[in-house]
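Help needed: design a sequence for this.
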């Protein structure tokens, strides 16, 4: 581990290690966020906050599966004021990613106006990709809605802003979305959110495994890693270089972290594996990533970030 640095920058924030929790995991309460902050994570993401506290969808709404998880949480959270108060009343020496996820454009704009007026100066993330709010579509699949939302946001918002995006599956989608995003002073994107509206069946009981939406939910874990790698790679090839990328999806090992950074991620987020293993996962990831870098002769993340090669004979 001698002379190896795994620090990374997004905006003005320095992450001493390049992994944090994904929004929705170990972050609903102050106690949970403090567990992340006291671990080897580089920072903490808050629960995606709505203007008012929200109970979320009926339970059971999360289930572990052989290769990951399925969930239809429905944005349970303590409300935006709770997370702003946590940030403002505590001395936090790691970067904070404040996640915002209103159920309408008006709510998102109201929330961001409140953040703009607050003393908060770290990273703010607007979630355009929650697939699990009953009756609400994902804004991230509506190109007109993305552009209209960002135009309205940047009329008043001057703090560092990132976007949480849904997974895209077509090269033309990457082209179209990147063309829009490049028009705005975004600090970063976060890709991907869970793969929406999958279905897991329990053959023994001949039923679905979660209650909301008839069993349909967001898929995470090992299943989605190739999709996450593709989205990170495709957007790194298309976005302005000043827009950083948080890679999310299927991270379970230090090798997964290495591959997402190789595709162009600046840092990564961990969701399903964190839910299954707990915050001590970050110490393991740190060791595994450092071991890989030492074996390959890399001294810092920029030595290999975004340097994925074409097929080698």
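Sure. Designed sequence:
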């Amino acid at each position: 581990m001698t002379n190896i640095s795994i620090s990374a920058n997004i905006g003005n924030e320095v992450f001493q290690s390049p992994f944090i929790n994904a929004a929705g995991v170990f972050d609903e309460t102050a106690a949970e966020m403090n567990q992340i902050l006291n671990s080897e994570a580089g920072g903490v993401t808050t629960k995606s906050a709505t203007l008012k506290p929200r109970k979320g969808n009926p339970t059971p709404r999360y289930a572990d599966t052989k290769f990951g998880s399925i969930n239809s949480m429905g944005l349970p959270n303590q409300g935006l004021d709770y997370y702003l108060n946590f940030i403002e009343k505590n001395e936090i020496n790691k970067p904070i990613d404040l996640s915002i996820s209103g159920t309408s454009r008006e709510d998102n704009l109201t929330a961001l106006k409140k953040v703009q007026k607050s003393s908060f100066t770290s990273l703010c993330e607007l979630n355009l990709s929650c697939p699990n709010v009953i009756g609400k579509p994902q804004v991230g699949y509506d190109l007109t809605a993305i552009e209209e939302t960002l135009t309205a946001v940047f009329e008043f918002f001057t703090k560092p802003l990132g976007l949480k995006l849904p997974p895209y599956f077509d090269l033309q989608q990457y082209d179209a979305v990147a063309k829009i995003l490049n028009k705005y002073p975004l600090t970063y994107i976060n890709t991907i959110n869970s793969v929406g509206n999958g279905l897991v069946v329990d053959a023994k009981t001949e039923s679905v495994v979660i209650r909301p939406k008839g069993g349909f939910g967001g898929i995470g874990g090992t299943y989605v890693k190739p999709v996450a790698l593709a989205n990170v790679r495709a957007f790194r090839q298309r976005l302005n270089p000043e827009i950083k990328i948080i890679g999310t999806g299927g991270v379970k090992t230090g090798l997964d972290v290495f591959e997402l950074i190789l595709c162009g991620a600046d840092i990564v987020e961990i969701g399903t594996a964190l839910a299954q293993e707990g915050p001590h996962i970050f110490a393991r990831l740190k060791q595994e990533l450092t071991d890989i870098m030492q074996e390959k002769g890399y001294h810092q993340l920029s030595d290999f970030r975004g340097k994925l090669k074409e097929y080698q004979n």
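The longest helix spans residues 281-296.
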